[in-house]
Amino acid sequence: MTSPRILVVIGTPLAGSLNHALAHSYAEAARAGGAEVRVVDLAADDVPRHPSLRDELRMPRSDADLPLADDVASYIDDVDWADHLAFFFPQWWGSYPAVLKAWIDRVFVSGFAFRYRERGRLWDKLLTGRTARIVMTMDSPGIWNAWMYRDSPIRSLRSATLQYCGIRVRGVTRLAEVRHRTDADRARWIGGMASLGATDADATRARERAELVGA
Predict the structure, then answer these.
(1) What rounded mean pLDDT belongs to the chain?
(2) Do 43 and 12 meet the contact criterion of CB atoms below 8 Å apart?
(3) pLDDT digits (tens, 9 = 90+) for 127-158
(4) H-assigned helices in the chain
């Protein structure tokens, strides 16, 4: 039985942020729980540039097609490798930061994450079997986010991206009113991420064990 493989994506351009502390706590606990963990940190790693050609939104289908950029190919390999993905990001202007959107646009491409069928309106979900967790920080109160923004960042990432491609979202955490919180509050949140990392490492291993038994 292989170790669980978890990809952590930190979707903010600001280094040293609360999201970094949350993500690193999660990743360290997942590693301690036996998982292999890769981290994509969009404050430090290359951010794929916005697509300017339609070919950049799909996998190459022949030698005549535009090849994948090196950074995009590496990120696609990360997602392909992972059993479970964990996203950490702040809510900005009722959405998630542009760096995370750019990463999603170039990585969750046709032919890798999904494929339209030749006939009808259906599509194939090519990332089925993977799971995900979403952690979002925000300055707004939770009730305001739900009422005014309709929880739009979560709905977009969970439904229009991950589930569309076959990834089942295991859990969503919303950490509200960040700017009004104390250091003790932040420390408690960071500790909570360690618990989630350990849980996800164990759950991913359990899922693999169940699949082996059912094979």
Answers:
(1) 94
(2) yes
(3) 999 999 999 999 998 898 888 888 999 999 99
(4) 18-32, 70-81, 98-107, 142-148, 152-155, 183-214
- Report which residue type is found at 41: D
Question: What is the residue extent of each domain of the chain?
Answer: 5-214
Helices (H), 115-174: 142-148, 152-155
So what's the architecture of 5-214 in CATH? 3-Layer(aba) Sandwich (3.40)
Q: Is the dihedral of CA 43, 82, 151, 140 positive or negative?
A: negative
d(CA 15, CA 13): 6
- Dump the DSSP string for 63-80: TTSPPPPHHHHHHHHHHH
Are 18 and 89 in contact, with CB atoms under 8 Å apart? no
pLDDT interval class at 208 (50, 70, 90): low
The predicted model scores a pTM of: 0.94
